[in-house]
Amino acid sequence: MDLGVLARQHRLAITLLTRGWSRFDDLVRETGLPRRSVEELLAELGEDVERSGSALRLRPDSAERWADHVGCPATPPPDLEARIAEHLADVPPPLPALDHVQATADTVLRRALWLDEHYDLGRVKIVFVGDHDLTSLAVHELRADADLAVVDLDDRVLAHIDRRSEGTIRTVHADLRFGLPRAVSGTADIVFSDPPYTPEGMALFASRAVECLSEPVRGRVLLAYGYSRRHPTLGHQTQKALLNLGLAFEAIVPGFNRYHGAQAIGSTADLYVCQPTPRARRKTKNPQAIYTHGPSSVEAGKTTESREALAAFTALAGEGGRTVTVAGPDWTKPATAEQGTAVALDLTGDPGPWLCRALLAVNAERVAALVPNAHPDLADAASQTALIELVAPKYKLRLLRSTPDNKHAVVVADRVETVSAASQVWTRAHARLGNVWPDAPAGLADLRLIDLPRHRIVEVLRLLTANRSISD
Known about the structure:
Helix content is 35%, strand content 19%. It folds into three domains: 64 residues, Winged helix-like DNA-binding domain superfamily/Winged helix DNA-binding domain (Arc Repressor Mutant, subunit A, Orthogonal Bundle); 197 residues, Vaccinia Virus protein VP39 (Rossmann fold, 3-Layer(aba) Sandwich), CATH 3.40.50.150; 160 residues, no CATH class. The longest helix is centred in the N-terminal third of the chain and has 14 residues. The protein is an alpha/beta fold.
């Protein structure tokens, strides 16, 4: 029986038929299922349904078997909230530039219980689009059999989830402004997200959520969203943006989410349960400014770096008479420069993860990247060493702090000519690992290096260094 996302209503129908005689009209009214869905359910139950005039019931000897078909919500362990609180106790600190505001442990627990009550978590697949609140870990604690994946920009969060779940939750890295990784595209029945609360951010995350669904009309997109009741126009703008994507609001549960912070919206947000229509679509234009704080905020808009800074780092890229191609931070597709051409990357908006992935994505004799002087990979000697070692199979780095001014730094990467097992994977970062690495572990073979969380990229490098056998 394929219940899709209607498990709760089907459970209720089975329960009613098990308890005794019910009229068809009562089943429709009590469950909220459309007439056609009730007819399909009864056809599925077949000869196990007894009929007496207009009344129906399940044969007593078959009731238990059908109850197993629709699944039942898990009985939460008594220490579930304590386990969730333990996961949250050492979650990486919120990044204001990514609009992180921590949900309370009670909220995260409530999310897990609500999902389990309404959907058959033993059969559906859930993708969490951004998960600093660790809702995925709460669901995993409640339902160990749940099929879960998390896609996030913050490598720290992905590492935390991977460690806490012991690798049972699939973690995938992405900046949704550039696209959705293949590893989660078209894979989900349910998508949950607590996006940036701007119309631009909500629309982008919701659009990516629709892309995650295997059958959009049969799936659901669950979004947390809050706005100040003093500014209903903002709420209207965001709701309109969601409607323009082709999403119907199946339910809006007020005050469902509570936060430590976000006092401008009363430290609370509603839960939006959205059903994509057949005309649901992805956004054709992906805004860069989607957050409420920091350099990528809507208020900040698009910043333009000084001509002096851009000219200076472009000159570094062109040292030795090379032709220079200027590019942005999008690493979703491989880029190869011709012989004698250097690539200058403007990464001045990098919140941290762009630099290493841009270096993996671009194959050139030389790459020069202009980044903030306070970039996390340049913050101290340990961070610099980690970056140098990570890209060593492909590039030798020069890290030029306070260049060309005290706001910026330039990372110059010169190609390494030595061929190794790792270099052949590092120069084909967009290929399935199983295609370029015959000995890739089963959990990695179907993934692309470019989509892995950073700690998993480090793991791949370690394994490749230990086992040098690889095909050309």
